[in-house]
Amino acid sequence: MDFEPGKVHTAEVHSEVCGEDFEVQYYLPKNFTDLYKYNVIITFDSQDFFRYGQIERLYERLRKNGEIERSIIVGIPYPSVEWRNHYFSPNGEHHENMVTFVGRELIQWIDSTFPTLKMPHSRVLMGESLAGSFAFSVSLAYPMTFPQSLAFSPFVDRDFIKRFEGEPNLMQLNLYHTIGLEEDDFTTIMGDEADFLTPNRELNEFLQYEPLEYEYHELEGGHVWKTWKPELEKILKHYLQQ
What we know:
The protein has helices at 46-51, 55-64, 81-87, 95-113, 130-141, 158-164, 197-207, 225-228, 232-240, and strands at residues 8-15, 20-27, 39-44, 71-76, 123-128, 148-152, 174-180, 186-187, 193-194, 213-219. It is α/β, with parallel strands linked by helices. It has a single domain (8-240), classed as 3-Layer(aba) Sandwich (Rossmann fold). Strand 6 (148-152), helix 6 (158-164) and strand 7 (174-180) form a beta-alpha-beta unit. The longest helix is centred in the middle third of the chain and has 19 residues, at 95-113.
């Protein structure tokens, strides 16, 4: 493996539960040294967080200014739009196995490969759209391992909301949830007409009265990184403020 700081690298991680290998991206900060322990930011749709969110540049600026704690960034990219529907979508055929892979196998690989703090509140999950739904799914399934999750404009339907209802470990969670005000009528990457705003408001109506830490924001804009990117600084400070 390549441990050169300041660059995005790739590795393959084998999953027994899924029976296949997954590409994983990782970024070690410019001043990385194994003399320190690090928080872990785990992104889903990771190539978009690097390309459009420029999350590594934002991290370096905030860290240089002493505003956030030491962290490494690890992520799972999507090889195709169809793949996202099968693995990240809460209705996808491989979704549950993928959740188990992250909750058991990926975190074991991360903690055995990098000098991490290995504590629940030293980990943050992040995703947008279907990957945002996936981030919340992982936290719901493994609240003691991944209590902290961000979802930009997640896909939400009635069945997804039901996952939260009656969940006894909601009090363990610290969720950050956003939706764009222009997402009431837009065309998805698959070419389908969709309304994300209404079901996300319904999820918020449920979660705001539950015993968990929960931030919800309706943003000016649509289902695009132009809407999401300005929120990243707030989110990194929210979870990693020094």
